[in-house]
Amino acid sequence: MTATLAIENVSVHFDAGDGPRRAAVREVSLAVAPAECVGIVGESGSGKTQLFMAVMGLLRGGARGSGAVRFEGRDILGVPRRDLNRVRGSKLTMIFQDPMTSLTPHLKIGVQLAETLVSHAGLSWQEAERAALQMLERVRVPEAQRRLRQYPHELSGGMRQRVMIAMSLLCEPSLLIADEPTTALDVTVQAQIMDVLRAVRAASRMAMVLISHDLGVVAGLADRILVMYAGRVVESAAAGDLLAGAAHPYTAELLKCVPNLWGPRLARMPSLAGSPPDAKTAERGCAFAPRCPRAAERCRVERPLLRAPEAPTRGHEVACHYPVAATAVTA
Ligand SMILES: Nc1ncnc2c1ncn2[C@@H]1O[C@H](COP(=O)(O)OP(=O)(O)OP(=O)(O)O)[C@@H](O)[C@H]1O
Ligand code: SF4
Ligand SMILES: [Mg+2]
Questions:
Q1: How far apart (Å, rounded) are the C-alpha atoms in residues 16 and 277?
Q2: In a designed cystine with 182, which of 190, 226, 233, 245 is the match (CB 3.0 to 4.6 A)?
Q3: Residue 175 confidence (pLDDT)
Q4: Is 329 exposed, middle or buried (0-12, 13-18, 19+ CB in 10 A)?
Q5: Which H or E run includes 254?
């Protein structure tokens, strides 16, 4: 079966004048199957956004991506913008933490939604307006008819994020990349948006990448979770396996902070002591070594590669010389 998205060996570097290039993402590979939801977690600066900006062809400010990205079997990394635009915005879409960055401030919501359908799906204005209304209702926007005539600044943050989700779903995409979709919202609204995403998944075969620094957000929706640290994937497993038996000491430390694993909220990432290495730092050994309770001499000189832990469950991979034994982590 062709993966919806296949990322192979993707790195992102920033030019830094005369100095060494900064590595934001280092040799990441992952695949997303049709209808699958993959969660990406990692603390601030771990490279989550830059990785998917590279996928979307949206890298800016001296950032350069390398490696291979295939969307439904077609190479998309480095293809001309004109060709990429054909899939981006219709079959491959991304939503961000701040929906204002993607909404046009001086256009009414209805016009923005309908325009997407007219330009990408070739609908008439009348058909597009009807479809826009239906989509707002589908993402549970109350008083949808009235919202169509409002401007983005007249809506709350949660309502704007629903509009963004509606806009990204209009052309029935094969893949939705949601980058911290609930981070700017209060807890009640976060839960509502996650419910909307859950309902959208249940009603379609759309694949999803859910990016968050909040393991709780990802755990509630993802089939598989990848943990990123300092630009690399350090652990990858089915969501249940990762939450019940993390093998990487970083993931295990994060889970230790969890007050109640199966409760409504899990720990937020930044509760871990110390800070990750700067993207300018040259890589030697394991990037997590300065913060790792299990670090030994080997960790400081030899970089651990992603591989199955000693007692693997299917598809579980970890980059660690001394992984944590498969013990269930509980409250
Ligand atoms: N314009 C830039 N110039 C240089 N380095 C940058 C630039 N933008 C991002 N970076 C670096 O790239 C690395 C990865 O950033 P990225 O935004 O992908 O992290 P993230 O995991 O999405 O974090 P967050 O949870 O805060 O969104 C960081 O170390 C950051 O300093
Ligand atoms: S390789 Fe060593 S330092 Fe890195 S996570 Fe594993 S035990 Fe810790
Ligand atoms: Mg980010």
A1: 17
A2: 190
A3: 96
A4: middle
A5: helix 249-256
Residue 32 CB–ligand 1 contact under 6 Å: no
- Report whether residue 58 contacts ligand 1, using a CB cutoff of 6 Å: no
Span 89-125, pLDDT tens digits: 789 999 998 888 889 999 999 999 999 999 888 899 9
CA of 34 relative to ligand 1 center, distance in Å: 28
- For 186-202, the pLDDT digits (tens) are 888 888 999 999 999 88
Q: Is 48 in the pocket of ligand 1 (CB under 6 A)?
A: yes
Q: Which atom of ligand 2 is nearest to the CA of 323?
A: 6
Rg (CA), the chain: 20
C-alpha separations of 315 from 26, 69, 109, 329 in Å: 21, 21, 43, 19
Does 3.30.750.24 match the CATH number of domain 33-59+80-91+187-318?
no
Give the position, in ligand 1's atom list, of the atom nearest the Cα of 211: 22
Q: Which long-range contacts (CB under 8 A, 24 or more apart) does 127-135 make?
A: 131/170, 132/166, 132/170, 135/166, 135/169, 135/170
Residue 254: the pLDDT is 78
The Cα 320–Cα 32 span in angstroms is 24
pTM metric for this prediction:
0.91
Rounded CA-CA distance 210/208 in Å is 6
- Tell me the three state secondary structure of residue 275: coil
Helical (H) or strand (E) element with 10: strand 5-14
DSSP state of 200: H
**Which residues in the chain come in under a pLDDT of 70?**
257-272, 279-282, 326-331
Domain locations in the chain as residue ranges: 33-59+80-91+187-318, 93-170
